[in-house]
Write the structure tokens for this entry.
Amino acid sequence: SRSFLNIESIRGDFMKVVRELTPVEIAQVEQKLVEEGMPPESIQLMCNVHLDVFKEALDEDDINVEPWHPLHILIEEHRDILNKSKALRDVASKIGRGKYGEEEVKRLSSLIDYFELVESYFSKEENVLFPYLERHGLVQPPAIMWKEHDEVRELRRKLGNEIRNLKDGQSNTNELAIGISEIFSNHIYKEHKILFPSSLKLLSEKEWEEVRTQFDEIGYFAFEPMPFAPSAVEPEEQSVEGLVNLGSGLLKVDQLRMLLNNLPFDITYVDENDVVRYFSEGKERIFTRTRAIIGRKVQNCHPQKSAHIVEKILSDFKSGIRDVAQFWLNLEPKMVHIRYFALRDNDGKYAGTLEVTQEISEIRALEGEKRIYDPLD
């Protein structure tokens, strides 16, 4: 129709202007156009073109990787995020104009839940991909992407609170939805045009396999990717003289000792034969431990009246009936939490027990929340 052609002819100019505006200003422009007689559907058509441009850019991507590849997974998650961003804009626009009912509120709530799940996408980038890029000297681009993740998180938090404000008719839903979709569309474009191509040049095939394995540990929210089997050749165990290989890191012996002795709780390790093999030596131990107990049967480290309890816990751990046992004692002014954990090897065979003892009176007294560092605290 003629009206549609008119919209098509001006929406390019419209988007050039909109791109320079804040979410609040975009919402104000939309409202002004409605007041001047433009149909809301026409405004939404023009606004959605911004997301459409980025979706088309994804389709034209020259990032050619196998379906198992981490970048393929992120690209597919990007497609889903853009689709849901568009849906969020649509429902938020109706709510912003006061043209909504129970169905729109349910849809908004569902989309808010969806964007909570997007946290796994953030986590895969922040905790896996970005560290690998930083190892290769690419530091600033990941830092910028992380900052944008945090911006979405803040808008998402505010959007979640808007459900309660709908009843009062004082809602910023439309502005927040615009903010989320604008950040995501620009964010995704930058990742596809800058971050991902750089990643392909920097990371080796072995590193991409490591990234995928760690992606699987975090999980997925939009789809289940192709199963992945690492290369048949296992990577050699990294071994450096004077360092202890802990799998997730290499530490000097004195570093490991310092770490264990500064944990905010006491730990004791008893092996599969009930022999005490280790205990941490923190500055303020809750119960007395001396090095004389090393090599001693744990049953002999407790009073006779409680030896049967120790024996029962160990028996249940060995049989597989239990994996955890816990107690809490009111030793005024201290409140002490004692936990026992069954340790098992990769085959599930019992390998000993870990005792964790913690003074929790200060933890129990905490209220509200604290998010700001206070150097005087």
Strands lie at 243-245, 250-252, 266-270, 276-279, 324-331, 334-344, 350-359. The domain at 2-218 is CATH 1.20.120.520 (Four Helix Bundle (Hemerythrin (Met), subunit A)). The first strand starts at residue 243 and ends at 245. The chain has two domains: 2-218, 246-364.
